[in-house]
Design brief:
Blueprint lengths: L11 H13 L4 H8 L3 H17 L8 H33 L8
Helix pairs in contact: 1-3, 2-3
């Protein structure tokens, strides 16, 4: 008996839609891959092929789509950090303002 794995075939339109969904959302490769029923590595490969294709077609500005994706990832991390700091400050202000007689005069 032979236990050969069969590989699912996806058409180009499905691949393009999957990559578009991944890149247009803030979700992870794992989340999108699970939703679509494809492997994470497969979806990651599709994204890399798509980015390489776009890099070749990059405009005169010299900013490639993969550079933009890296910048977006960096900015999302920075935003999450800033939001966390803001929430901490809100809580601290709330705690300090709840103490009667301890306010600044």
């Amino acid at each position: 008996m032979s236990t050969m794995k069969t590989h699912r075939q996806y058409d180009d339109e499905f691949r393009k839609d999957a990559v578009r969904l991944l890149m247009s959302s803030a979700r992870t490769v794992k989340d999108v891959a699970d939703e679509l029923g494809v492997g994470r590595s497969v979806l990651g490969r599709w994204r890399m092929k798509h980015l390489k294709k776009l890099d070749k077609e990059a405009s005169v500005t010299g900013i490639t789509p993969s550079d933009m994706e890296k910048e977006i990832k960096r900015l999302r991390k920075e935003l999450a950090y800033a939001q966390e700091q803001r929430d901490i400050l809100k809580k601290a202000c709330g705690i300090l303002s709840d103490r009667p007689g301890r306010g600044m005069s």
